[in-house]
Amino acid sequence: VETGNGKKAIVIFVPVPQLKAFHKIQGRLTRELEKKFSDRHVVFVAQRRIMAKPTRTS
Questions:
Q1: Are 31 and 25 in contact (CB under 8 A)?
Q2: How far is Cα 3 from Cα 56, in angstroms, rounded to an integer?
Q3: SS3 call for 6
Q4: What SS3 class is residue 21?
Q5: pTM
Q6: What is the DSSP letter of 47?
Q7: pLDDT (tens digit, 9 = 90+) per residue, 4-31?
Q8: Contacts (Cβ under 8 Å, ≥6 apart) of 14
Q9: How far apart are CA 58 and CA 56, in angstroms?
Q10: Under 8 Å CB-to-CB from 45, ≥6 apart: which residues?
Q11: 3-state secondary structure (DSSP) of residue 9
């Protein structure tokens, strides 16, 4: 994803149930990825899926 200043960023989508585990390693993982991709920022985003309410079928 390109940011406004002409730089680029890497967006990593994390499922909400695994978000707590990612918080534990997020700092180390961000540093390693920014080291590997030196010209880009790394951003973690929690991804939710909204399910439809179950209804009775006739």
A1: no
A2: 46
A3: coil
A4: helix
A5: 0.67
A6: E
A7: 888 888 999 999 888 888 889 989 999 9
A8: 22, 44, 45, 46, 47
A9: 6
A10: 11, 12, 13, 14
A11: strand
